[in-house]
Design a protein that fits this description.
Structural class: mainly alpha
Distance between the termini: 29 Å
Keywords: Antibiotic resistance, Cell membrane, Membrane, Transmembrane, Transmembrane helix, Transport
Oligomer: single chain
Number of helices: 17
Protein name: Multidrug export protein MepA
Shape: globular
Transmembrane segments: 20-43, 49-73, 94-117, 137-158, 165-189, 195-216, 256-277, 283-302, 314-337, 357-375, 387-410, 416-435
Largest sheet: none
Radius of gyration: 21 Å
Membrane topology: Multi-pass membrane protein
Number of domains: 1
GO cellular component, one term: plasma membrane
Helix content: over 70%
Length: 445
């Protein structure tokens, strides 16, 4: 048994949890900085309309991330389960198959989307004012977006192979490079939003280089080996990873739905206000994703090793952490909304008022969102894929879309901002009801 396996099975559950949680949170925080810094630099350099244009193009980025999570989480769950069973050759076949699947699927979809990029921009909510910015940003994402998926899936597997610190370092390096290049390309070379996109792509490639150093470590079990595509193996990967794909795809639905809904009641000023909210939301969302990413390797490994007590203790710690963090975000957003909006630049009074109200209302959703994320990951990695899919679809598709249709006619912009908090609260309630009926909390919490 390798040293990392020994620590997984003998160190205290809290120590193991923190060993994965802290690098995951730091890494995801820095990854979200990549997205937010684009917004801060563009907002200060090019203004609110350019910021709105980038926000409209963001769903393209989300689709690439969704694919990498679909196959990455699905494959990594199988990978860690195999390691728990001490079947390293099987784990290596899973890793190789997952990397190739992500690369081929991403390249294929990007090529198709590139051909139809103008209609795609219009579907995403572009108008004559924002279309030039959308096209500049989206074109580069479609041409080189496969780099996002490679970095993301490598980060997932490196974390599952017992090296969460390297995954964190790679994301830190990516963020730092992105900040430096964003400043150079926007403020020195005046390359516009295409320069911001290029900075992000280059930073991601550097991050891939950092992650690749894991292959040269003696403790690495990530090896490219011969494998076969079998219907069963591929089906398991897609089945296990589907909730992660739907979660990230739901982010695209969220962005597109909110753009359309707020534009209908507040015009371009509303879209600009949502851009500020969405950039802030991306930071917090990545932190919650970091919590779920931290427990996924642990739950999968403990399942494979049949260590039920450690599995239960891990999910207990994750739930407490998620709820406590959500409370902090809610309080911080309620009292610090003005400061949050001011970070993204100086805007007209109508944009500032809309964005400030948005933060105060929307942040109520974080009281439930972290819990929903953690439980989705738990259900996903313990074979309750149906419940995990329900959580994902209900959060950012079913209930959110319904409330975006129902609330704005009565409450205007406030109804748009409230759609996610109401949706998250209902989903959290459904989880509690399901868990009590299945006696899950009595077993796992």
């Amino acid at each position: 048994m390798k040293e990392m396996d020994t620590r997984m099975e003998t160190d205290s559950v809290l120590k193991v949890f923190l060993r994965y949680l802290i690098p995951s949170l730091v890494g995801m925080l820095l990854m979200s900085v990549n997205i937010v810094m684009d917004g801060i630099f563009v907002g200060h350099r090019l203004g609110g309309v350019a910021l709105a244009g980038i926000n409209i193009a963001v769903p393209v980025f989300s689709i690439f991330t969704a694919i990498s999570l679909w196959i990455g989480i699905g494959g990594a769950t199988q990978f860690s389960f195999a390691l728990g069973e001490k079947d390293v050759p099987a784990a290596q076949r899973i890793f190789t198959r997952s990397i190739i699947m992500v690369f081929v699927i991403t390249i294929t979809l990007a090529a198709i989307a590139f051909v139809f990029r103008v209609p795609l921009a219009n579907v995403l909510g572009a108008n004559p004012e924002t279309l030039p910015y959308v096209m500049d940003y989206m074109t580069i994402l479609l041409m080189f977006g496969f780099a996002f998926t490679i970095e993301n899936i490598l980060s997932i597997f490196v974390r599952n192979d017992g090296d969460p610190n390297l995954a964190m370092v790679a994301l830190i390096v990516t963020a730092v490079v992105n900040i430096i290049l964003n400043y150079c390309f926007l403020f020195i070379l005046n390359w516009g939003v295409s320069g911001s996109a290029a900075a992000t792509i280059i930073a991601v490639v550097v991050g891939i280089g950092v992650l690749s150093t894991h292959f040269f470590k003696k403790t690495s079990r990530l090896k490219f080996v011969k494998f076969r595509f079998t219907k069963k193996a591929v089906g398991q990967t897609f089945s296990i990873g589907l909730p992660s794909f739907l979660s990230e795809f739901g982010l695209s639905v969220f962005t597109m739905g909110y753009n359309i809904a707020i534009a209908a009641v507040a015009g371009t000023a509303g879209v600009a206000a949502f851009s500020v909210l969405n950039y802030t939301h991306s930071v917090i969302l990545m932190l919650f994703l970091g919590m779920s990413s931290a427990i996924q390797p642990l739950i999968s490994y403990y399942r494979g090793a049949k260590l039920q007590d450690r599995e239960q203790a891990t999910i207990r710690l994750a739930i407490i952490t998620a709820i406590g963090t959500g409370l902090v975000f809610f309080v911080g957003g309620f009292f610090g909304a003005g400061h949050i909006v001011a970070m993204f630049g100086t805007f007209d009074a109508d944009i500032v008022n809309l964005a400030t109200t948005a933060v105060r209302i929307f942040f109520a959703g974080y009281l439930f969102m972290g819990f929903n994320f953690v439980m989705m990951t738990y259900f996903q990695t313990t074979g309750r894929v149906g419940m995990a899919i329900w959580i994902t679809v209900a959060r950012e598709m079913l209930f959110m879309v319904a409330f975006l249709i129902i609330l704005p006619p009565f409450f205007g912009a406030e109804g748009v901002w409230a759609s996610i908090p109401v949706s998250e609260a209902i989903v959290a309630l459904s989880i509690v009801i399901y868990a009590r009926r299945k006696h899950i909390f009595s077993k796992a919490v």
